[in-house]
Amino acid sequence: MENKKLVDALNDNGVLAREEFIQLIMSFNDNDLSYVQALARSISQKYFGNRIYTRGLIEISSYCKNDCYYCGLRRGNKNAQRYRLSKDDILSCCESGYALGFRTFVLQGGEDNYYSDEIITDIISSIKKKYSDCAVTLSLGEKNKSTYQKYFQAGADRYLLRHETADETHYGKLHPENMSLSNRKQCLYNLKEIGFQTGCGIMVGSPYQTAENIADDMLFMKELQPHMVGIGPFIPHKDTPFRDMPAGSFRLTLFLLSLIRIMLKNVLLPATTALGTINKNGREQGILSGANVVMPNLSPISVRKKYMLYDNKICTGEESAECKACLENRIKSIGYQLVTDRGDYK
Ligand code: SAH
Ligand code: SF4
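A: This is the predicted complex of the input protein with iron/sulfur cluster.
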């Protein structure tokens, strides 16, 4: 079938066969890209209008016990600068974020065992007590179901855990042996079952990724029915085993953002910092491809350069207010507006 027909079928049926996804991913041309972008944009317009949700990202720790081959925070990176934010640090990020209009705070970090269940639940409940009209999103990696349950009971609303790849063999090329795709997926099912608005996702163009892998990622997203999907290009980090690997394709990232919007209609879909890092108008282009969320950095300026997942990450030198104002202008320039809204999944 012709590519545009496949896209229409995806729009009508909410899914394609694996072979059809593979064909689209391998053969799309510039016309096909414009076609999916326009369709994806009309779907996000229908659900969200020209309103873009914003989440304040607080990077709470650069310590990580894991050794993912792609990530600058991996424990094997001896050059990484490590820091941890205290509860007070985090609350003061929320305070400035609240004043700037953020109604979702995302606490993200490496898998850092310093933060016991007690410490995290205390932080969550303190934020929720002070800012009862705000949502708390966590992105702290793989934990036991009982830990996720405690986080939820303390008031956390959402959890982001990219599955990274839905293919077992590919997963094994990105992670050391002590990590497994089955555990990653189990975590996602547990999070959903507990009641979190749950997000999965991938890096586009991660080393050894094939079109078949991406097709399987699309099918996994269809099966999981996530509330959020985080995708951005892989970008090499100079102190990791993947230092010499090429970055993911900007064009393919935009194409996939659109396909995800067309498949999952009302999903919460961020235009990521990584997308803004590989292209100076990356986040705007992401929105024009169907994304409806941005996640500016609220971390204290003193730690920004220490949370380096990949090289050349943007927004590591500006104050939160500057980041917000810069994004606001960028979003306005393409006819959209940032809104002060929790932006829950509906
Ligand atoms: N430790 C948590 C959260 C922090 S990492 C976790 O792993 O879930 C958040 C995301 O950053 C990861 O899911 C991964 O997809 C992305 N990431 C890590 N290294 C990257 C790189 N080199 N390029 C692009 N994205 C990267
Ligand atoms: Fe740690 Fe997450 Fe980086 Fe893996 S991707 S090394 S879990 S911070």
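The beta strands are 51-54, 56-61, 104-109, 135-139, 158-160, 197-204, 228-233, 293-294, 337-339. The domain at 2-339 is CATH 3.20.20.70 (TIM Barrel).
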